[in-house]
Records
---
Amino acid sequence: MATAISILPAQQLAALNDAYRKAIARKRLKATLATAVFCAALVIAALGAEVNLRTFFTYFGNFLSYFDRILTLDSGARVWTDPLEWFWGLKKWLRLLGETLLISYVGTLTGAVFAFALNFFAAQNTSPGPWVRFIIRRLLEFARTVPGIVFALIFVIAFGLGPMAGVLAIAIHTTGALGKLFAEIVENADMKPVEGIRSTGASWLSCMRFAILPQVSAGYASYALLRFEINVREASVMGFVGAGGIGQELVVAIRKFYYSDVSAILVTIIVTVFIIDISTGWLRGRLFGKETHR
Amino acid sequence: MSQMPKPDTSGLRAKYPGVFERPASARLALPAMIVAALAIFVYGLVDLDFSPTKLITGMSQLGWITMMMIPPNPGSSFPLYMQALGETLSIALLGTTLAALFALPVSLLAARNIIPSNLIRFPVRRFLDSIRGVDTLIWALVWINVVGLGPFAGVLAIMVSDFGAFGKLFSEAIEAADRKQVEGIRASGGNALHEIRFGLLPQVLPVIAGQVLYFIESNTRSATIIGIVGAGGIGLQLAEQIRVLEWQKVSFLILMILIAVAVIDFISSKLRFAIIGQRAVV
């Protein structure tokens, strides 16, 4: 089967080829420039961060042997040969893990309630006024941008050492993060039911309750569950600054070189995070079908 | 005007009870869940030593601290803080870039359409999951033990924890790539490496670049906090000033962090749009 490929006249072809080459060259130049700028930024960053490759290579062995050490018991045997000795403090750690989970649970619920109360004011389509919206948005932004652990550091001084500071820090950070997500869900909601309810003479509050809420509650619950997952990780380090949970125990073990304890606590944390991830994933699937939330 | 016959409601109700009334299990599920959630909440409040008096004294303390914070004032340490902020940005940039470099080859191993065999993919995925299960702050503590106090430990901590996240995200991006272009390369006689280089990477790279930029942005936040455990950057200054109760400096540092994060957000969203066009990132 013979098919003829038509070739353009040489003159026309040359013009086209020329244009093509120019376009490619421009693209290449742009890419090269971008790469050069990026590399320069990296070099400056490396100087700024005191990166020392010699230190890195000298001590990289330490990093690997660190894992060797945390997987060795005091007696010199590998940790998995004697699980009882490895997890000697399991009872205490489980209690602290329970505390960690409670911190993240109470913090998430409190934060979700506040976010719920505020998000209608922050969403463009339901906010009663632009000024309210502006102020609430800035507040949420502040709560979201300041890291939770910075709040925890300040709260530890105000409320004293203990899990309460951790709960409040997580609650504030969660309010900021969920408030924004909730407001986005509300902005995507259908406005026709609101018009319907308003046309019956209902107040703003009833409009929210009967027109918006039924549309958005599933999304709220889904995001709140997702946030709970994130907060479990966050709560596991709250103890670093004295705000309760398993972190306190871990930081002591790392700083005092109780090697096998470090690995044992890390394993319990990782397993807990896995279990929480899987169970909240299952719960989300059960409650809201197979929809995926990013 | 036509008249519809009135339906026999009570007869239908008797015939199809399931349509008119939801089963008791469905009706009771929501109240039961709410009660359970509240019960755990109250138990949590009790177990975590919440008390109204503590809350009120704490609030008044907090109010007092807030008063002390105004106006924000760096004292004479402004140049030091600027340097620390630069250090933080450097940590975020370097850590994220290194993580992306290391994660790219590993993510190929974790992608279903590159490695069909479960035997390799499963352990690689679990490995990435366990890295992600450990918080950046914990990695920072570990690296401080290895390379000593300072920003370098911060870079390595961000690198390791992002490595886990990138590995997962990249492999998902690769799995979402279009199969046809890879098949085209194979049909024209390319080997496996050619398939990846010319069939896969052109599709995946813009997505990856978008993700890396997004992570540089979010790592600016992470990098501010790893200083709290001693891994350099502005967090170190912040934690120190909080511990010595220099509230005006604290509020100044928090302001600096907020402004820096806002600026980085702005730049990176501009860059992301330039790289990937109007397509939404993840």
---
Amino acid sequence: MSDVTQDQEQRAFERARKIRMGVTYTLLTLWALIVLFPFYWMVLTSIKSYGSYNAEYVPLLYTTSPTLQNYVDAFTAVPLARYFMNTVIFTGITTALMLVVIVLAAFAFSRLDFAGKDLLFTAFLSLMMIPNELVVITNFVTITNWGLRNTFLGLILPSVTSVFYIYLLKENFDQIPDDLYKAAKVDGCSDFKYLMKVMIPICRPTIVTVVLLKVIECWNSYVWPRLITDNELYFLVSNGIQEIRENGFGRENIPAMMAAVVVISVPLIVLFLIFRKKIMEGVSRGGTKG
Amino acid sequence: MKIVLEHITKRYPNRNKKIGGLVTAVEDFDLTIPDGKLVALLGPSGCGKSTTLNMICGLEDPTEGKIWFGDTDVTRLSPEVRGVGMVFQSYALYPHMTVLQNIMFPLENLKGADKLSRDEMVRRAEHAASLVQISELLERKPSQVSGGQQQRVAIARALVKTPKVLLLDEPLSNLDARLRLTTREEIRRIQRETGITTVFVTHDQEEAMSISDEIVVMENGVIRQVGKPQRVYDEPDNLFVSKFLGTPPINVFEGHVERGQLYIGTERVLDVFQAPDGPVTVGVRPEGFVVDADGPFTCGLVAVERMGRDTSVVATHDALEAVQMRAIVSSDARVDTSASNVRFRLRPEKTRLFDAQTGQRIHFVGETMEEPAEVMAREARAAAGAPKPEAGATA
Amino acid sequence: MNTRSMKGWLYLIPAIAFLGVFVVYPLFDVVVYSFEEGYNSASQTFFGTGTYNFSYVLRDTYFIQALKNTFILVIITVPLSTGLALLISVGLSSIKKLQELYQTIFFLPYVTNTLAVGLVFMILFQKTAYTDGFVNQIIHLFGGSSVDFIDGPYWAKMTVMCIYTVWVVMPFKVLILTSALASVNPDYYKAAKVDGTSSWRIFYKITLPMISPMIFYLIITGFIGAFKAYGDVVAIFGTNLNAAGMNTIVGYVYDMLYGDGGGYPSYASAAALVLFAIVLTITVINLLIQRRSVQTS
């Protein structure tokens, strides 16, 4: 008798579990669709021809006559290629400069002893709490006064340092055992050589993560470039998109606009798919959006 | 290369800033290490032995005192100029380099006239690798070789510049017990083959005793005794050294001396002529007990453990410093395991007396298996004018 | 100073220089600006000092509108996104099959250009002469009538803004909560199961308390982030946010600094400081609540 009830209980339990799993997968799939839909829409619209898009009063979820004309337009009717190149240059130089600055700073904090180190490090950490909005005003005035508006230098300089990345790298440097440094001293290795030949190679994973996060940040930066450039020659992709939207193809050429959006979104998505684990791990270690 | 440490003192600022002030890690350390010898710095953790090694290496500067390598004052020289090789407790191998790159690393840092060609570096690295018998591992990363092999890589890296002095910081502590035995023999072999003056730090007395020419026992930054291992074991200068050396450890009792007789509790256990009257601390090595039904020393019997060659008698006594004592007796000794007591006789050459307050050694007649001539000489000295009248009175 | 000390500072020169010029100096400067009345950015002169800038900003209808918009956005999106993220993360950590795929998809918005995808959202919600737009089609499906979400009524515009904001902030929250859930020692669950605890009770009594520090962290960063909303709003409504009536505090700061009718760094500074004060207050309140709830639990 007890076997029967046990069996029933078991079956009820199984059923409850199946229902729960079903609900879970439905919920997750629903959210996945909400996340993916804009991307699908963007690609779909970008391959609809101008005529067919505007003819659809009820927008279709598919297209029968895909075209690449919009991509041609995106590169010819507006200077998308230039925005793209500008962003590559900006991202490349900013990231490279940042790397030099933070590696040297993290090394000093982690490995060297000097008067006032603890105090300075605390001061650095407290700077992490300063919102960008508070300092952007003066930086705008500073860069304007230096005559660096509409230059790469003006775009790059205020974007170089990040206290958070110094902190992240310093923590990683700290994990390298002390004995390694002593061994290097016995081996006649200078501080700088130790940094280059031992610390950087060992901490390469963290450095790669920092670079990836910085590249994402640079690629998506909008506020500072908007303030500091009003000459199209120096627009980055974010400003470019805004410019295209307001003055570009004419307000109504949505498919061409979407082609441009696809073009500027692809590099980061590719980067993400390659370095998925590293990026997600890096963000969960303390990145924030923006 | 002879190493001379001349009154070395090392003080650090206190790490706890609230207390402040200085902490003395090593105090007035005075030692000469003869050329080509293997010397162990031995002591419990925090006794200053690693600090001393770091000062010999040049990783830390002494606050006071001088360090000489031969006739050269190296006190303020940096490690690479001193010509030392060092093996760290954690081996400190560079994880991103192969074994060969690790061994070559010190050579790559040579500058100016000492600069070597790439081929020469590889040749020397391979030679060092063959010396420690890891030639087949050169292309692997440190994480791909075993702990014992990592140890050898570290030694090869320390030897590749043919240093005048080799320093080893707890070289065996990260190895399992079996590997420890073979590796310490290996270190001994390499040291003999190369003839390099070697200093190693350990907290394991067995390790120190087994391979070194001399041991230096340290406590709280101070040298407590220097000497050949067996000599230090047999003739400890003080209670600390006697307790630190030997497994199982020496058994320590409270006792007192009255007119040349040693008392533990109320029992008169041993003749200790010429020892001054008063309270003493008595140390008896486990092998210093002889089971004897008529023996003068009665202890509470806890257990008898027979282990092949030896028999251990575990016992208790009110005057014992620890909870239990352990005596190692010959396996043919008869112990009545049903009895509640066991009686012992003490071997004078395995029994050591120390001042109850200072822990300094107190000598008595018959404590060593000395040559008769020596005994006679001492007795003559005592007869000529004993410095301590009460000792003379009992004689 | 000895040579060793010199060396440390030498390595830090670049960092100190950059931070000094672009973070520390501006920090003091913004306060100075905010008290300089009638500052003229062309001639770099000002009439006097005082609190006029603050009173001007606080009485400016555009600022009041921006304040209102920002607060509504914060009040709606922070609880909504945090709750939704918790739901999704719990679902995500309870499955095995396809877990990585879902994780990857959910994180995708984090690496996309906010401005670019905002444009897609605008198109999805927009109603023009040629089309009602995709979202309105769905509303039709459920028997509703079409709304212009981009140029239409205030609540409609606010809805789009909130939806897009939630879409944008979700990846970070889901990631943080998923890794928090993954780091709970499974022994707790095993122990609870042995005790016969129901799944809901396990979640409420074990999981939630264990990940509560991370939830608090997300709420605090969520508040701070939402108060600084700007880019995603521009993406949907264009740069002239005042005209759309959808400006935010940060948008107001930038408009005052530069933009149509800009060139008032003093007003911008005053507004930025007001924002900073609000964010600081909310953060402190959050921390106090967190401390209290940690103490009582």
